[in-house]
Design goal:
mainly beta
Protein backbone atom coordinates (compact mmCIF):
# COMPACT_ATOMS: atom_id res chain seq x y z
CA UNK A 1 0.00 0.00 0.00
CA UNK A 2 0.94 3.63 -0.34
CA UNK A 3 -0.23 6.58 1.73
CA UNK A 4 -0.58 9.98 0.08
CA UNK A 5 -0.66 13.46 1.63
CA UNK A 6 -1.34 16.57 -0.43
CA UNK A 7 -0.38 20.12 0.47
CA UNK A 8 -0.12 23.53 -1.13
CA UNK A 9 -3.72 24.49 -1.68
CA UNK A 10 -5.13 27.86 -0.75
CA UNK A 11 -6.85 31.03 -1.92
CA UNK A 12 -5.42 32.90 -4.88
CA UNK A 13 -6.62 35.59 -7.25
CA UNK A 14 -7.30 34.83 -10.88
CA UNK A 15 -4.08 34.88 -12.85
CA UNK A 16 -2.06 33.73 -9.88
CA UNK A 17 -0.12 30.53 -9.27
CA UNK A 18 -0.07 27.69 -6.78
CA UNK A 19 2.14 24.64 -6.45
CA UNK A 20 0.64 21.46 -5.04
CA UNK A 21 2.71 18.64 -3.59
CA UNK A 22 1.81 15.04 -2.84
CA UNK A 23 4.13 13.00 -0.66
CA UNK A 24 3.88 9.24 -0.72
CA UNK A 25 4.92 6.70 1.87
CA UNK A 26 4.76 2.95 2.05
CA UNK A 27 5.74 0.83 -0.93
CA UNK A 28 8.38 2.20 -3.29
CA UNK A 29 6.90 5.42 -4.62
CA UNK A 30 8.79 5.07 -7.88
CA UNK A 31 6.79 2.01 -8.85
CA UNK A 32 3.51 3.94 -9.07
CA UNK A 33 1.83 5.85 -11.84
CA UNK A 34 0.61 9.11 -10.27
CA UNK A 35 -2.17 11.52 -11.04
CA UNK A 36 -3.87 14.70 -9.93
CA UNK A 37 -7.66 14.88 -9.94
CA UNK A 38 -10.09 17.58 -8.91
CA UNK A 39 -13.68 17.81 -7.81
CA UNK A 40 -15.61 21.04 -7.79
CA UNK A 41 -18.77 21.39 -5.70
CA UNK A 42 -21.66 19.57 -7.31
CA UNK A 43 -19.55 17.96 -10.01
CA UNK A 44 -17.89 14.64 -10.58
CA UNK A 45 -14.21 14.09 -9.92
CA UNK A 46 -12.10 14.51 -13.03
CA UNK A 47 -8.52 13.87 -13.98
CA UNK A 48 -6.26 16.90 -14.29
CA UNK A 49 -2.88 15.34 -15.03
CA UNK A 50 -0.95 12.11 -14.77
CA UNK A 51 2.66 11.05 -14.91
CA UNK A 52 4.21 7.64 -15.36
CA UNK A 53 6.48 5.99 -12.82
CA UNK A 54 9.73 7.41 -14.17
CA UNK A 55 8.37 10.78 -15.30
CA UNK A 56 9.00 10.20 -18.98
CA UNK A 57 5.35 10.44 -19.99
CA UNK A 58 2.80 13.01 -18.88
CA UNK A 59 -0.78 13.91 -19.68
CA UNK A 60 -2.76 17.04 -18.85
CA UNK A 61 -6.41 17.57 -19.61
CA UNK A 62 -7.27 20.11 -22.29
CA UNK A 63 -8.79 22.67 -19.93
CA UNK A 64 -5.45 23.17 -18.13
CA UNK A 65 -3.02 22.54 -20.98
CA UNK A 66 -0.38 25.25 -21.14
CA UNK A 67 -1.16 26.37 -17.57
CA UNK A 68 -0.58 23.29 -15.37
CA UNK A 69 2.51 21.07 -15.24
CA UNK A 70 2.89 17.74 -13.48
CA UNK A 71 6.27 16.47 -12.35
CA UNK A 72 7.74 14.05 -9.83
CA UNK A 73 10.86 13.53 -7.77
CA UNK A 74 11.12 9.88 -6.84
CA UNK A 75 14.06 10.56 -4.54
CA UNK A 76 11.68 12.70 -2.46
CA UNK A 77 8.62 10.47 -2.94
CA UNK A 78 6.80 13.52 -4.22
CA UNK A 79 4.64 14.46 -7.19
CA UNK A 80 3.94 18.10 -7.98
CA UNK A 81 1.31 20.08 -9.81
CA UNK A 82 2.42 23.58 -10.81
CA UNK A 83 -0.64 25.67 -11.59
CA UNK A 84 -0.18 28.99 -13.37
CA UNK A 85 -2.64 31.55 -14.70
CA UNK A 86 -5.36 30.15 -12.46
CA UNK A 87 -8.99 30.77 -13.31
CA UNK A 88 -12.09 30.77 -11.10
CA UNK A 89 -13.20 27.56 -12.82
CA UNK A 90 -10.10 25.84 -11.41
CA UNK A 91 -11.66 26.11 -7.94
CA UNK A 92 -11.97 22.57 -6.56
CA UNK A 93 -10.60 20.08 -4.10
CA UNK A 94 -7.48 18.59 -5.65
CA UNK A 95 -6.54 14.98 -4.97
CA UNK A 96 -3.52 12.93 -5.85
CA UNK A 97 -3.82 9.25 -6.61
CA UNK A 98 -1.50 6.32 -7.22
CA UNK A 99 -1.79 3.11 -9.16
CA UNK A 100 0.54 0.25 -10.01
CA UNK A 101 -0.69 0.49 -13.60
CA UNK A 102 -2.46 3.51 -15.11
CA UNK A 103 -3.97 5.88 -12.58
CA UNK A 104 -7.70 6.42 -13.09
CA UNK A 105 -10.80 7.32 -11.10
CA UNK A 106 -10.93 3.67 -10.05
CA UNK A 107 -7.45 3.66 -8.54
CA UNK A 108 -7.14 2.39 -4.99
CA UNK A 109 -4.86 4.95 -3.38
CA UNK A 110 -5.95 8.53 -2.75
CA UNK A 111 -4.89 11.44 -0.64
CA UNK A 112 -7.29 13.43 1.52
CA UNK A 113 -7.42 16.37 -0.87
CA UNK A 114 -6.41 20.02 -0.70
CA UNK A 115 -8.73 22.94 -1.44
CA UNK A 116 -7.86 25.38 -4.20
CA UNK A 117 -9.99 28.52 -4.44
CA UNK A 118 -9.50 31.06 -7.21
CA UNK A 119 -11.22 34.41 -6.78
CA UNK A 120 -12.18 36.60 -9.71
Amino acid sequence: QVQLVESGGGLVQAGGSLSLSCVGSGRPFSSYDMGWFRQAAGTEREIVARINWIGSSTYVTDSVKGRFTISRDNAKNTVYLQMNNLKPEDTAVYYCAADRTKVTLDSDYWGQGTQVTVSS
